[in-house]
Amino acid sequence: MFTSIFQSQIFVLDQNEALDFYVGKLGLEVKADVDMGFMRWLTVGIPGEAGREILLEKPGPPSMSAETAEQVRDLVTKGAMGGWLIFITADCRKTYETLLAKGVEFTEEPTERPYGVDCGLRDPFGNRIRFTQPNT
After folding, report:
1. CB–CB of 123/18 below 8 Å?
2. Could you tell me if 72 and 59 are in contact, meaning their C-beta atoms sit under 8 angstroms apart?
3. How do residues 83-130 score in pLDDT, each as one tens digit?
């Protein structure tokens, strides 16, 4: 059967702004940036990792009508789309300080949990992001 997850998707409202955030601030790298004519296929991932990619998809054709796309954009802005990402880091507090210095706005500071230390933020579009330093 399945051996891994290759791609996940989140909606973003502006793909260039998404690149500035995910690559410029979070330090991910572009895995694919392809103009398909009817849409831009834009994926990012962990630098040097050949595994999972995140599709930064702008709501619209061909997957939805203009009316539906507008509704999706409204839900994304409210943080109500259910899209979220969790990253692993070796040092949650250090990563927090690095991203804070880059202007990333957090919804939750690093907090001790039963599974490790983690914190939360949102991307410029309302998608929820967490990163965790798991207990070893």
Report:
1. yes
2. yes
3. 789 999 999 999 999 999 999 999 999 999 999 999 999 999 989 999
